[in-house]
Amino acid sequence: MSNTSTTTTGPGDGARAAEPTLKPSAKRAYTTASAGPTEGGHAVMLDRRPLSTPARAALVLPSAALAGALAEEWQAQGPRPAPATMPLTRLAFTAVDRVGPGRDQVEASLLSHVDGDQICYPAERPAALAAAQTAHWQPLRDWAMQALDAPLAVAGGVMPVAQPPAVGQAFGAALKRLDGWRLTAVQEVAGITGSLVLALALAHRHLDVAGVCAAAHLDERHQMADWGEDAEALDRLARAEADIAAAGRFLDLLEEP
């Protein structure tokens, strides 16, 4: 660790690598994508064929709104479908193919990185960064205590922090309360931000997408303010924030009928 800005191993490091791979089709093999009811929920139809996952599982979605949004992603594709332009589909496939059958491993992976949650590693300097982190992160630590009963310890100086057992227990209970769809979004956001607290705050509607992005990328924004903007860094930041926004929309659509 550093007593300036820090880079920690966050709770989602490596979690996104296990997502199902969306392979581009040689060509678009359907004319119309639509959504409709199916047994147990809602389906996406490519012409008259129900969309299935890369593992060939039935894709039964819990809300008509989510099914409709996936259908819009597929309808918007050109002659060669581009998986990178279908973030909601990727999350839905991950929920069915990876999180559903591997829920225990997903939870264990998230909990194994609790000690590295970035909001527990504030900088001591420069003063402007330290102040920004305090302003964004202390309310989140307070929320974790009040809403999740998680008494987070904060690192000081260069030494890593070991969270008390009560924190792991509280986060474990919070994850158990999520269904597989919401756990998928939490895994996604934790992997991007290096913070399970931020991911849970989004899932619990304590923060919106803009709030998560602001709290997650304080160090990057501070460095760009000090040293100037870098095109590659800006691109990485934009892609990360687009993925957080997709996860936030995924959560929103789950709340709609």
From TrEMBL:
<comment type="similarity">
    <text>Belongs to the ATP12 family.</text>
</comment>
<dbReference type="InterPro" id="IPR042272">
    <property type="entry name" value="ATP12_ATP_synth-F1-assembly_N"/>
</dbReference>
<dbReference type="GO" id="GO:0043461">
    <property type="term" value="P:proton-transporting ATP synthase complex assembly"/>
</dbReference>
<keyword id="KW-0143">Chaperone</keyword>
<dbReference type="InterPro" id="IPR023335">
    <property type="entry name" value="ATP12_ortho_dom_sf"/>
</dbReference>
<feature type="region of interest" description="Disordered">
    <location>
        <begin position="1"/>
        <end position="43"/>
    </location>
</feature>
<keyword id="KW-0809">Transit peptide</keyword>
<feature type="compositionally biased region" description="Polar residues">
    <location>
        <begin position="1"/>
        <end position="10"/>
    </location>
</feature>
<dbReference type="Pfam" id="PF07542">
    <property type="entry name" value="ATP12"/>
</dbReference>
<protein>
    <submittedName>
        <fullName>Chaperone required for the assembly of the F1-ATPase</fullName>
    </submittedName>
</protein>
<dbReference type="InterPro" id="IPR011419">
    <property type="entry name" value="ATP12_ATP_synth-F1-assembly"/>
</dbReference>
